[in-house]
Design goal:
The protein is mostly helical. It is built from four helices and two strands. Strands 1-2 form a two-stranded antiparallel ribbon. The two termini are 26 Å apart.
């Protein structure tokens, strides 16, 4: 499988949970129109690789995958275990289910799924598991902990195809 060509996202001063919430909002805002999607995938060229194909189901799947990966990485660090490598094919693969019609029920499910995952991520920070009361970081360097949120949001926000569906 070819490596992703997206540049590493910048680390800034936003809390990682806020980045994740913004990513979910960015996807769910245009999702209101997806039940009217014409079943024509958006094709996005990628330098040195085959073009990527995007559909409403794929956008939801990729954001959920990113959030699950982020949560698994945080959990492994809290448990003192190595993180498990991500074996998803990412946006380079479009499944048959990605090409299905996106219904109002799919929209309701996507909202529930993505918002719940974002709330779980936000809750981890609220429990003080990732940041101490004075901003110290008991798990790892702050930039390391912020990186998964930036990768997740960068994959969606830098690609922009979800806005075109």
């Amino acid at each position: 499988m070819a490596a992703m060509t997206d540049p590493a996202p910048d680390i800034d001063d936003r809390h990682p949970a806020d980045v994740v919430t913004a990513m979910v909002d960015y996807v769910l805002d245009p999702a209101e129109t997806w039940p009217r999607w014409d079943l024509q995938p958006i094709e996005v060229p990628v330098e040195g690789e085959p073009p990527r194909v995007y559909t409403p189901h794929k956008a939801v799947r990729r954001v959920a995958d990113h959030l699950l990966d982020h949560l698994a990485e945080i959990e492994a660090r809290l448990a003192g275990r190595p993180t498990e490598p991500d074996r998803w094919h990412g946006s380079s693969v479009t499944t048959a289910s990605d090409l299905a019609q996106f219904t109002h029920d799919d929209l309701d499910e996507a909202k529930s799924r993505l918002r719940r995952l974002a709330l779980i991520r936000k809750g981890l920070g609220g429990l003080g598991l990732l940041y101490g009361s004075h901003g110290e970081h008991p798990v790892a360097d702050v930039a390391v902990e912020k990186a998964p949120a930036r990768r997740a949001s960068g994959a969606v926000l830098n690609g922009r195809p979800v806005r075109e569906l």
